[in-house]
Design a protein that fits this description.
172 residues, alpha+beta, four-stranded antiparallel beta sheet, three-stranded mixed beta sheet, 18% strand
């Protein structure tokens, strides 16, 4: 995979969309590996092409004040121009790895503490790109990855249907 750091720029007070592009920060990635875009910041359009997010890119939170947030990973799939902040590693997979498989695997590794073993702490907990690139990842044949993804997505769909039905029953 191609792994790149995001843009280093202070964005805390950049809440005006007229500034330019939305920038994804660690705060926009949930522990469940989804995006929360309720609190977006904006920056001027970046000049380097590698800062443009493409559908299928994985965004890996490599640095955080909270140990449990290091490694949370979301899969980008939105339309429009977006970029990503410096505490995010953008992972663009190549043909041997299914990005959905890797998304689930990285979040599983974070939840089970496997990534915690590779983090260090100064002011924040972190796992930089050099450490990340050396991280051993289980990569079964692509066909097996696809079967895993299909089964997991089916399970998640059925789980959501059950949750929706329970909400319906509770709030009749």
């Amino acid at each position: 995979a191609q792994v790149d750091y995001g843009i280093y720029e202070s964005v805390k007070d950049n809440k005006d969309p007229s500034i330019g592009w939305p920038i994804i920060t660690g705060g926009n990635i949930t522990l469940e590996g989804k995006f929360d875009l309720d609190d977006l910041s904006y920056i001027k359009p970046p000049t380097k092409e590698n800062f443009l997010l493409k559908k299928g890119d994985l965004l890996f939170n490599w640095r955080s004040g909270s140990h449990e947030h290091v490694g949370k990973t979301a899969r980008f799939g939105m339309d429009g121009n977006y970029t990503y902040a410096s505490f995010i590693l953008r992972i663009r997979v190549k043909e041997k790895i299914n990005n959905i498989y890797l998304h689930h695997l990285l979040n599983h590794m974070r939840r089970t503490g496997l990534l915690a073993r590779t983090t260090s702490q100064q002011v924040n907990f972190k796992m930089n790109a050099t450490i990340f690139k050396k991280l051993p990842i289980i990569v079964p044949p692509y066909g097996e990855q696809q079967i895993f993804v299909e089964k997991l997505e089916s399970f998640e769909k059925h789980t959501q249907e059950i949750i929706n039905h329970l909400h319906y029953l509770i709030f009749l």
